[in-house]
Specification:
The complex is a heterodimer. By secondary structure, chain A is α+β, with helices and mostly antiparallel strands. Chain A is about 15% helix and about 25% strand. In chain B, about 40% of the residues lie in helices and about 15% in strands. Chain B is built from 24 helices and 17 strands. A six-stranded mixed β-sheet of chain B has the order 2-1-6-3-4-5. Chain B has a six-stranded mixed β-sheet with strand order 8-7-12-9-10-11. A three-stranded antiparallel β-sheet of chain B has the order 13-14-15. In chain B, a hairpin with a 4-residue loop joins β1 and β2. In chain B, α18 crosses α19. The longest helix of chain B is centred in the C-terminal third of the chain and has 21 residues. Bound molecules: iron/sulfur cluster.
Amino acid sequence: MAKLLVHIYGLIPGDFKDVEMEFEGSISLERLELEIIDLYGQEIQPQYINGEGLMNHKYVISGDKLGKRVDYSNHDLSMLKEIWFIVPLAGG
Amino acid sequence: MEGRLLRVNLTDRKITMEQIPEPYLRDYLGGSGLAAKYLYDEIPAGSEVLGEENKLFFSIGPLNGSNFPTSGRYNVSCRSPLTGIWLDSSSSGKFGYYLGRAGYMAVIIEGKSDQPVYLYINNDSVEIRDASSIWGKKISESIQAIEQECGVKGSTTAIGPSGEKLIPIACLINDGGRAAGRGGAGAVMGSKKLKAIFVSGDKDVSIADKESWRKVTRELTGKVVDHELTNTLKAYGTGVAMAMAPQSGDAPTKNWQIGDWEGYAKISGITMANTILRKHSPECHVCPIQCARYIEIEEGPYAMKGSGPEYETLGSFGSMVLNDDLESIAYMNLLCNEYGVDTISSGSAIAFAMEALEKGLLSKEDLGGINLTWGNIEAILAVLRLILNKEGIGDLLGQGVKNAAQVIGKGSEDFAVHVKGMELPMHDPRAFFGFGPTYATSPRGACHCHGYLGGIEGRNTIPEAGINEIQDRHALSGKGILTKAVQDLSTAVHSSIICVFTIYSLGASDLAQALSAATGISYTGEDVLKIGERIFNLQRAFNNRFGITSADDVLPPRVLTSTIGGPIEGLVPNFKEQMEEYYQARGWNASGKPSQAKLEELGLDFVIGELYG
Ligand code: SF4
């Protein structure tokens, strides 16, 4: 069983989630996104989900702990331990 | 449409009331715009920044004094002692609301008092009162004493000991920690021996079309309430942006050098919400966003209660100096609010001094024996106290990084991160490319509020300016055009005058609807942008008067070099192309002046004589 700490920041109004998810087998970005959208799709702002039911990467950045982008060419994310999905905000 | 201006001369203690000419209100609205018109006309070339001829212009706009969302805001303008050029600085809270209820659109302060005074305004009763007993006192104590003496409900904006000592990064604080922070208006107030302004009033605010007003206010409040970011800002405050820094790369770190740091999460708005946050600060008048924080640290060296640090302060006393201790940042914020100093400029000056020490350009002796190394909290606090009190190295750092680098020399200019003398705020032009031309051309020097890209780039469109596509933050073209549009919109917002955070949810046409109902003049979204453009160009002409040319529209070398590590490593804006596009969009000539044709188009003919002889 592989574990991944998933940070979902800026996709759900007023709720920044840090959730630990567990997976059998390898976790691709696509599989992870489908899982997240299955769990939180009702709360995620519609513009952040694309027509294929995945994250809309026009807005949503997915990256690892060092800020490196994670994309669909990553076939197994379990080594990362943590992953972020964010819609950046330059406010303040 | 009408508005009254209160003119207060502190030299001869004369107080007069004037009607603001209607064309001024129509063409410049209020806030920053009205200030531009009056100060362009009244502050001559060659005048001293801290002399009698500099004037302070406090102003609101047609939406203030009402129940419009975020309309408690006010603007203060003058010539800046930090940059020598245009300054406007605005603050939320309730001061703008009470100024509107007192029946004034603006208060202009001129001359100098020889004794400490404060200004008392209660409807038509206006007095210059003695402030000797509070001169030298910290801000909360001063405001408490003034409000006790005045005995009516109102709002006070005041300077602290740093403004009295004429420190060029001194600011004004009102309503429990709201700040007109940038550019040193506090020092101009100090030079006039004006400690504070108290305002109260209960007049009805004039609304031209009450029925439309009720409808528009209800609808636009709903739009703000329903926007996705409203709940986010309410839950976590502006510090939420720090939580995104590991991915966005937007938080400047180690004086803009690195892009990767483990401390971001420890000082974010999420951590604040889970630890020291007690409630939303109630100090901002009718605001559905409620981003302001009220915090409490019960024990330890940083025990305090009051206003919590904003994102900008988390950056300047956190990531910029590698301090990951949230409570200490809150305490530094408190000190700045009590002495009246801008947190962005002071934190940036400390980061600059850290790098200068590390590179051997300053010695430990220069710093009075303080070992100012990255992340050394006690040392940061010690140097901050020197800045606040204008002592030792603090005297130099309080002049801003541009001036400090000129004195230190030896290549320190390369890491003095400022534009026109104003330290960059905590948003990185390498993370959002639009901040490049925005910082390079903002009328008060590096400023994210005069072009509030955070609300637009990668997030929103401005159809009234022909920007119909959301722009990628790292796009290589279009930033000049985008910057102009965002600056025009932001300038109209600062002149209306409401909180810039409404730009997330309200566009130019929304603002036009509100202004039309309030004034009875029919504005369109395009008109609103045109007004913003007019004001922006008038502020540019003010700066041209004080020597600004295209050679000053630059970015510091540090942000034109890649970060070391992090999500934006290798990304640097194509600044030269951005600026060519920007100048073309603005209609400015190669020397950095608005062209004659542009000035004529905007109805700024009165500027042509001075700019073109
Ligand atoms: S958005 Fe924040 S700063 Fe602006 S008025 Fe509301 S609480 Fe105050």
